[in-house]
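Minutes, project check-in
Item: structure for the 471-residue chain
Input as provided by the requester:
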Amino acid sequence: MLQAASCFLTFLYLAAATARTEKPNIVLILADDLGWADLGVYGADLHETPNLDRFAASAVRFTDAYAAAPVCSPTRASIQTGKTPARLHLTIWREATLRPPPERKLIHAPAVSDLPHEEVTIAEALKAAGYLTAHVGKWHLGGAGYYPETQGYDVNVGGSLWGAPQTFFFPYRGTKHFGGEPRYIPGLDWGRPGEYLTDRLTDEALKIIDRAGGRPFFLNLCYHTVHTPIEAKREAVEKYRARLRPGLHHRNPVYAAMVESLDENVGRVLAKLDERGIAGETVVLFTSDNGGYIGRYEGRQVTDNYPLRSGKGSLYEGGIRVPLMVRWPGVTKPGGVCREPVSTIDFYPTLLEIAGVEGDPKHNAEVEGVSLAGLLRDPEAKLHREALYFHYPHYYATTTPVSAIRSGNWKLLEYFEDGHIELYDLSRDLGEQKDLAEVRRDVALRLRDRLARWRAAVGAQMPQPNPRFGR
């Protein structure tokens, strides 16, 4: 009888191991407003990111990865659904849909403020396949009726309608910023004075990893850092203040300290996977929701996206090119570098393929992303995709309403206020300094037409002339 019981237990163990192998854990780590050049492995000259640099050495690092939008909520929606913001009509963050900008030449395009429940999220697809699904941190995809719990997540810690905290220090609430609006982060009670938000969100994420047991899990870990308010631990700030010197592109010691805290906490997550003995069964992705914010905070420029042009809000490279590193144990080769253009719309089909999940056929028919699994197996492979498209029919400090297309090494931007177009060859001009729209008129017109056809195909909402402007 004991022998039979032993055989039965062995069978259960092997079955569980097989299930885990077929359905790996997935940890998606999303930073907020982190620029492409903000990490050491991507060329940062002040910031120190040893954990992320080591992770890159164990993963495939993408040089030409893009956020689907130059601002947060649309990119987050693209990750959840595999669709472009233009198709979703979710092209700007929630607060901006409710409070349109003041009088400008164009009335910005209408946009939905909540991720529709009709969309099938990555969490819903994985949950149906037996995954424990957990969201930690920033959500910013709708009001209370659209929180993560309504979009396929079993667990939600901190996800709410707000995009940024009033403060990064406990109790994470107040009225100092955002026009005096009271804000707080739900689920983070019982902290201690001096506790730092990035650390606390990691604490909550580690609890989820511990409590998952033998069940495969999907952890959507969305840090608020390095978004404003620009606040960091004093000791780290002083360390970077002492390292400032002429000639640096990055010159904000507080921001550098925020980047360091982000790096420390990604290291803690990776260490937990090692500690639990599940690192070899866990796919880890790290990226950012848009390019670095180049505005000023308390009189100091936040970051610099050199060698890229502009920053958050813009469809120049500084606004949409982001760091991306993916580790798929047993598949990705350490230190791989992929130069194929990819986008956050690709995460949905990629994770479904990795997990062996088919998803909803009706939803899949409208998914615009393509699986990156082939690139993870061979970083030199090609996707054979015609182009990547971007649509931001709104105003921001760095832009007027604009669309863009990247096809091969060509990048075209079309501005809606006056209809002018700009063309760049990114293979020779990464900083987008030499406009070739007149020199290569044939290429520019071909890409402009392709961009217009795409907008029509996805039903992109367009800005309209403002009849009151200039009166």
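Outcome recorded: The first strand starts at residue 25 and ends at 31.
No further action items on this chain.
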